[in-house]
Amino acid sequence: MKKRFEKGFTLVEIAIVLVIVGLLLGGVLKGQELIFNSKVKSTYNMSKELSAAVNGYQDRYKQMPGDDPNALTRFPNYTPAVTNGNGDGWIAWGGSCQVGQQGGENCTSLSHLRASGFISGTGPEGVPAPFGGTASVMSSGQLMPNAGASPALGLSPQTLTHKSASAMDTSFDDGLSTTGSIRCRNLAAYNMATPDTNVPDWCSIQM
After folding, report:
1. Residue 20 CA to chain centroid, in angstroms?
2. pTM value?
């Protein structure tokens, strides 16, 4: 009787399969890295875009959005109705800007910018951030000691993880959570032992 021989994979075939799998995994990981880096850049660019809007509002109305005491007179037909600021030269923080809530002047600032046509969106609700969560405009001194009333982009704790905050700070500032133009309140240092956990408090980018 003729013997039957069962054929298996040769070493060359196995090597080819492993190379293909490696290339696929490398492509996936590289793609994830590109997406992550794109979100880091988009988060930083958000501050520049809102900075241009804030400057445009100040040039046109000689008031800071959110702090403008004449906003209701300027935009009587905007829906939902805007709320006046108190005109003290300070964009006061009042918490996260939720749908259906006016919040503090940081939220009102978004409503003023939208009513004046400088940014898109509805009312005072927060601006969606690339990593999730929302952003708003507030005075730098809200999160940065001795920074004064100059505007800053405020990022809610749900917006950034330690990894994304560190990457943005390293790419566009000094890499430290307590100094420079990018800072996170109540965070002494980025914790890269738990990179995917959210930062504990608000972060800001000075405009």
Report:
1. 37
2. 0.82
